[in-house]
Design brief:
Rossmann fold; alpha/beta; two-stranded parallel sheet; about 40% helix
Amino acid sequence: MNILISGASGLIGSALTAALQNRGDQVTGVSRTPSPNQVRWEEVTPELMNDFDAVINLAGESISGRWTKSKKRRILDSRVNSTSAMATAITGSKDPPRCIIQASAAGFYGDRNDQILNEEAGSGDGFLSEVCQQWEAAASPVTNVGTRLVAARFGIVLAVGPGALGRLVLVTRLFLGGPLGTGRQWWSWISLNDTVRAVLFLLDKEISGAVNIATVNPQPQKVFASTLGRVLHRPTLTPAPRFAIKAALGEMGAALLLESTRLNPSVLAENGFEFQDPDLESALRKILAT
């Protein structure tokens, strides 16, 4: 297949690009500062879309950092505007791509305590939920021209490097790991390996609509912390009270660390996807050994 991918330099995008190329697909990236085999956003036109079988849209401002008004505006605009540009180009194409896999996130569901959330669960409240709702809605016009739309709602993607796991490994190695708030909030995680495999699966199967990209075994945060401590041979007894997290990290810290989202990847399971990394401890040992 000939595939156009935005966000190709990010955690998921870079691993996905390599996997697509390894299986023989042709990949073109979209970037504001393009390198070889990439195009500028200004070049994303209906004419360009005639050349592609599928689009994978992962573009968006990082949600890390304090959520000032300007930061929140960039988070929202970067996602909605890039997705609208993709959708406009696809709907105007004479020969549109057959499929677009549109990034979204577990934040769509908001803070839902112990509720098990499959793809039929409604949206929640809060900033991240509003971002995800607008993000997904911006892609919806592509269905009017027969392009299959998948909204991939990613959980916490675990990989080595500067992402979520990298920061957790750092604090745990410094003997600062432990329960965040009550520690009872559910963290829906997935290995980068299974994330890439899931996206390829969705690319190849006739699946449309929302899809939860998360393991079948989410864990309460305190269990996640203790499992990581066991893998790293560190105690995880240092609690971080809710008020301290909110004081240090503001709204971003509360949303990313304290809210509870217990995803059930029912669409993947019902369509026969098999996870290679379903167990948290085994997944962490595999990831951190690389």
